[in-house]
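[Protein data]
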Amino acid sequence: MAATSYGPFAATLWVMDEAKRRALVVEDEPHIRDLVALHLRLDGWTVSTSGHGEDALRLMQAEPFDLIVLDLMLPGLDGLTILKALRREKLNGDVPVLLLTARREEVDKVLGLESGADDYLTKPFGVRELIARANALTRRPRAAAAQAQASAPAVTDGTTDAEPPVHLRNVTIDPARRRVTVDGRTIDLTSLEFDLLHLLASSPGIVFSRRALLSRVWKDETFVTDRSVDTLVKRLRRKIEVDPAHPQYIRTERGAGYLFDSAVDALR
């Protein structure tokens, strides 16, 4: 593929034009790789494939994608190593990642989610479920597109429909630009992380159950579990809390759920 120059709104263009949705399937078993690629193409995706960890990472660093389907067990670099490296990249650093794993133990799935995966499928899986999850993941706005929008001048038509920013203690959440600052420092959040933080901060002191968060943040778009909420909260705490082990903002109400604590003396 010829080298192309991508401007600051490239992520927006790739997401908005579904005819150009691009997926990378990383799987070392040829029959699974070919099956996934075939059904994604039938669903309208442009698909690239790789069966080797190092080759896959080079592709992720060179070309923009709207979705990455990533196997955990790969020759060269394993899936978790690739995932952690990917999340540090500017290009594709915010791309939705759907993990494929033959491991059924919960700890393996949690490790994948904590490393930055957005969803996972356990082998063997149905192709209809895979396509449903792929489409659900890519319906959400990309963080890079939101950041590009945040850096652009605000445009208004004179109406007041846009939600106002939320200011709590030293945290500011701007839903119009999908931007979060803590102590004046901009925090890079994924789409799910932003939605979760905005929901909690918009109702400070209100306890949201895990089931309520699944319904309000994921909106039934993916096949997620209560543990997915815990994992997302853990990732969010790492980004906004001074000490994630003793959170001051996103508090756990034992046996009930989570809340945003707006009290100045919230550290306990």
Notes: Residues 59 and 73 are 18 Å apart (CA to CA). Confidence is low (pLDDT under 50) at residues 1-18, 148-160. The longest helix spans residues 226-240. The chain has two domains: 10-143, 156-260.
